[in-house]
Amino acid sequence: MKNIFTIFIIVALALVSCSQERTTSLEKSKSKKHTQTSMNKNSHASTTDSKNPNSKTNSTNHTAVAKSNIPVENSNNINLNKLTITFPSNWSKRGNENELFFDDENKKPVGGITLVGYYGDYNSTLPNHSEILNTEDIDVSLGKGKLFTLKRSNPADSNNNETWNEIHAVVPANKNNLAYDIWIKGKKNILLNILKSIH
User: Fold this and answer.
1) pLDDT tens for each residue of 159-180
2) Could you tell me if 185 and 110 are in contact, meaning their C-beta atoms sit under 8 angstroms apart?
3) Which DSSP category does 101 fall into?
4) Contact at 8 Å (CB) between 138 and 146?
């Protein structure tokens, strides 16, 4: 009888131990599955963020790239040397991207094209020591502007009383705070023909 009771105790202890080990194993298994599921969700969320255009992270990166690619307006992006210009056959052209001169057969300047600052006041673009004789509106290939007939003179301290007429066409260049000043010493129709040829 004593032996049977002893065997019963041993079997009971063995069953309890087995049950505890199984419970611990199940808890570990559940914990592992939960951890893997959590990691998968995080991984999925990260992948989704990298592909979703509405994602905060992707939006920030996209804005930075867009800003770096935004073109900045350059007020000196006009190159006068790239203009196609027709002028009298006995004239020659010289200069650079910001200023051109027309010389006659004697190599004396008789006209030119200059980029000048323009902030809405045409008169401020005109050369010093000049008197406006006539003003008219023009509409040419470069845009709309004004045509001035000027009486020019030398500075007072030059002791030179010579005066001469110049024709100036002032045409604002869009969004640049600049204007084309196309001018000649001579007849207005020569300047008008030059303006028609420019493109």
Assistant:
1) 899 999 999 999 998 767 889 9
2) yes
3) E
4) yes
The two three-digit tokens of residue 109, written as one number: 């300047």
Closest by CA to 195, choosing from 103, 86, 71, 116, is: 86
**Which of 116, 102, 93, 134 has the alpha carbon at shortest distance from 172?**
116
* Reported pTM: 0.59
Does residue 198 contact residue 85 with C-beta atoms inside 8 Å?
Answer: yes
Separation between Cα atoms, residue 23 and residue 138, nearest integer Å:
96
Query: Which DSSP state fits 62?
Result: H
Distances, alpha carbon 32 to alpha carbons 26, 39, 40, 45, in Å: 10, 11, 12, 20
Q: How far is CA 125 from CA 43, 181, 196, in A?
A: 64, 8, 21
